[in-house]
Amino acid sequence: xxxxxxxxIKPDAVGKGYTGKxxxxxxxxxxxxxxxKLVHLSREKAEGxxxxxTERPFFNDLVDFMxxxxxxxxxxxxxxxxxxxxxxxxxxxxxxxxxGTIRKDFAESIQNNAVHGSDSNENAEKEIAFFFTSEEIxxx
Length: 140
Ligand code: IDP
Ligand code: MG
Hints:
The chain is an alpha+beta fold and 140 residues long. It is built from seven helices and four strands, in the order βααβααβααβα.
């Protein structure tokens, strides 16, 4: 079982000044942060990250959103990190997210939903490598 996943604090949440509060939620839930950076994604990079969604009707709007300002990718560690992190963030649509989840408390819409979390161990490793070199990931 992999213990790492990729999180992104998305541009809506960074822009509203929620970065510190969201990192505090992540740490309070028992995750270790092994890597972090603030990046303003190019269109090419955002399209590459969300390539699996190319055919979805919301794809162009999603790329507009993800390139609208800086975001903060994080490498986070926890037992069963992928599932633990997705539980912490809640449903994609904040209107359906459980009480106490990050999306319930910080997201504004199904698109501008404050945080990303990888959906499988395989994708977590790919997404971590998409943003971080090994020198940028620090064992806890
Ligand atoms: P996830 O982030 O919960 O894994 P995905 O289905 O992988 O959700 O979708 C990726 C991202 O695309 C979402 O986090 C959200 O920002 C956006 N998105 C997903 N579904 C919709 C939609 O129906 N309308 C607009 N944006 C959406
Ligand atoms: Mg997803």
